[in-house]
Specification:
Elements lengths: L9 H5 L2 E6 L5 E6 L7 H11 L5 E7 L5 E4 L2 H20 L7 E7 L27 E2 L7 H14 L7 E9 L3 E8 L4 E9 L4 H11 L1 H4 L8 E7 L2 E7 L14 H20 L12 E3 L5 E3 L6 H10 L9 H4 L6 H13 L23 H10 L10 H6 L1 H6 L4 H19 L3
Parallel strand pairs: 1-5, 2-6
Antiparallel strand pairs: 1-2, 3-4, 3-5, 7-8, 8-9, 9-11, 10-11, 12-13
Helix pairs in contact: 7-10, 7-14, 10-11
Bound molecules: adenosine-5'-triphosphate and magnesium ion.
């Protein structure tokens, strides 16, 4: 067994921690964390995501003194792991031994077929040996965690995205307009979601769409999906965005209210942000609300490009269950229409969708759900657009205020559990 060359008490004094991330069938990557005790579960998942960009990692394991593997999928379990680890560090210090790094084993949701075929951009030790020497990587310092996604966005946005740099992987889903793929961006080593839409339009219209999409580079909100670029190849456009490993809300079954509340807060903030830029979403629905294992909730597929919306509409004409009554009857679309769709989106996970056009606005039964929640949905779904809450009223609504506590761990834990459940139902690959 190899030890890190840290002197006695060194690690505890500086609260420094070296986490050795084991790469399946390969070596390991060492990550030096400078504020170990403050480390959050999602920070670790984030780094694992950088080390293993092609896997969807929802949890990781560590070994206890008997060699049993213990799973970590929440901040509480992180705390338990760290306190166990620090107790072993103390023991090593007392015995005058050098301190061993904390070894963790990422657990992928789906084992990726091929791994590392394009060469990871992290400092890995080659070879299958568990006993490879310590490779303290300076490519993943803890303070770069927050920066990395903004930097990546800049790199991707400046370097033009193009088809040659993208390797399409799994299909994430089909919509009315196109297909979304999980894809690997070779130069950055990052996983993206790429939406490919077939559009038989003139070069002129293609240019118009590209310039209308420019505004997406300026969208900078943690409640809006990151945009990395778009390009046309022949008669199809590829729109590259941030990949959200929890997918969209429509695939989740009944969502408990304390989770739904935090999701609603993020959605309201995302919409308020778009409205402040004078952008109407125009397609608010659960499949356009994405979640990830870090507990983030982001909106996607909003109508920034009129030309793109029009071109897609030519191939698809219809209404959907989330459209406001005034929109279905061809009247003017406004913020209020987005608010209607917001209300019905949050009603749907509760499986209480009712007829929306001709009948009275649906009302949720009080008792089963909290009064503020029922009131929130009922207000959003007022028949008269002007009676629906304005943006500032949404933010000030008791249901939103109640859950506006920035507690991403609630959503993170729920997403991780749901993914785990889905994985166990699918059985071994
Ligand atoms: P519509 O075409 O009517 O808007 P939709 O939203 O279901 O329907 P798409 O937008 O094509 O259709 O998306 C298909 C599916 O791809 C979504 O339901 C979602 O699960 C998945 N998806 C889309 N974007 C991402 C992303 N950035 N990260 C992860 N999954 C995504
Ligand atoms: Mg969509």
């Amino acid at each position: 067994m190899l030890w890190l060359p840290l002197g006695p008490f060194h690690a505890m004094e500086n609260q420094m921690l070296v986490i050795r991330i084991k790469i399946p069938n390969s070596g390991a990557v060492d990550w030096t964390v400078h504020s170990g005790p403050q480390l959050l579960f999602r920070d670790v998942l984030d780094v694992i995501g950088q080390v293993l960009p092609e896997a969807t990692t929802t949890a990781f394991e560590y070994e206890d003194e008997d060699g049993d593997r213990i799973t970590v999928r929440s901040d509480e379990e992180m705390k338990a792991m760290l306190s166990y680890y620090y107790s072993t560090v103390m023991e090593q210090q007392v015995n005058g031994q050098l301190i061993e790094p904390l070894l963790i084993f990422p657990r992928a949701c789906k084992p990726p077929g091929e791994r590392n075929i394009h060469g990871l951009k992290v400092n890995t030790r080659a070879g299958p040996s568990q006993h490879s020497g310590p490779a303290v990587s300076d490519s993943l310092p803890s303070n770069s965690l927050k920066k990395s996604s903004a930097e990546l966005k800049k790199i991707l946005a400046n370097g033009q995205m193009n088809e040659q740099d993208i390797r399409y992987r799994d299909t994430l889903g089909h919509g009315n307009g196109g297909t979304v793929y999980k894809a690997y961006h070779v130069p950055s080593g990052k996983i993206l979601a790429v939406k490919v839409i077939l559009l038989d339009i003139t070069l002129e219209l293609q240019k118009q769409i590209m310039s209308e999409l420019e505004i997406l580079y300026k969208c900078d909100s943690s409640y809006i999906i990151g945009f990395y670029g778009a390009f046309f190849v022949e008669n199809r456009i590829s729109i590259c965005t941030e990949f959200m490993d929890g997918g969209s809300l429509d695939v989740y079954r009944k969502i408990p209210e304390h989770v739904l509340g935090r999701i609603a807060v993020a959605v309201v903030k995302g919409l308020t942000y778009l409205w402040s830029l004078k952008i109407l979403h125009r397609d608010v629905k659960p499949s356009n609300m994405l979640v990830n294992t870090r507990g983030q909730v982001k909106l996607c597929d909003f109508g920034v490009s009129t030309q793109l919306v029009n071109s897609i509409a030519k191939t698809y004409v219809g209404t959907n269950a989330y459209m406001a009554p005034e929109r279905i009857s061809g009247e003017q679309y406004g913020i209020h229409s987005d608010v209607w769709s917001l209300g019905i989106s949050f009603m749907e996970p509760l499986q209480l969708l009712q007829c929306i056009v001709d009948e009275d606005s649906p009302v949720l039964p009080v008792g089963e759900f909290s009064e503020p929640f029922v009131h929130f949905i009922t207000q959003c779904m007022r028949k008269q657009p002007k009676e629906r809450p304005a943006p500032e009223e949404l933010m000030g609504h008791p249901f939103i205020v109640q859950f506006n506590d920035g507690n991403a761990a609630v959503v993170s834990m729920w997403v991780c559990r749901a993914l785990e459940e889905r994985r166990s139902q699918q059985g071994p690959p």
